[in-house]
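Renewal narrative, Specific Aim 1. Our central claim is that a sequence can be written position by position from structural information alone. The example that follows is taken directly from our test logs and has not been curated for this report. It begins with the structure tokens describing the chain, in the order in which they were read.
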């Protein structure tokens, strides 16, 4: 069975050992295992890999509810800074896609990780500011509307 984290590796060779308690070799590997824990409902792994200084602030019931009511659709790693085997800190930016409450969602986060005594822990995460992206430049007000109506943009879709 392919690992839910999207690595294209078998679960037993990817997140399986981490969910069983093995230390993650990198911050990204820990991030992937935490996503897989959400998919499999392994709340213990999510809590155990939370940084000890903030573990008591974890909302266990909230995590359980989110994992249970969501159908997880995939993980995309956007960027990873540091967080390698020789580092003590690192960040991983990712998008986790899921379906809940009748809609598809995308949770984008920039997560911080810290290594203590050879083990990586999740410290915190924040949603990065995302600028809206336009597929094409907005037409000038007096230009023809791109919808093909024959009207000026300002009188059609530019209103």
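The sequence written for that structure reads:
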């Amino acid at each position: 069975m392919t690992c839910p984290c999207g690595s294209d590796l078998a679960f037993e060779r990817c997140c399986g050992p981490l969910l069983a308690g093995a230390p993650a070799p990198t911050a990204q590997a820990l991030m992937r295992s935490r996503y897989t824990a959400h998919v499999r409902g392994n709340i213990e792994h999510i809590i155990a890999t939370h940084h000890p200084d903030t573990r008591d602030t974890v909302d266990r019931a909230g995590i359980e509810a989110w994992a249970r009511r969501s159908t997880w659709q995939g993980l995309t790693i956007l960027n990873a800074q540091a967080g390698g085997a020789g580092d003590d800190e690192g960040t991983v930016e990712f998008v986790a896609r899921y379906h809940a409450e009748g809609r598809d969602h995308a949770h984008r986060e920039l997560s911080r990780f810290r290594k203590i005594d050879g083990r990586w822990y999740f410290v915190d995460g924040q949603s990065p500011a995302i600028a809206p992206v336009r597929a094409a430049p907005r037409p000038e007000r007096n230009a023809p509307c791109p919808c093909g109506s024959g009207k000026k943009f300002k009188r059609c879709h530019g209103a």
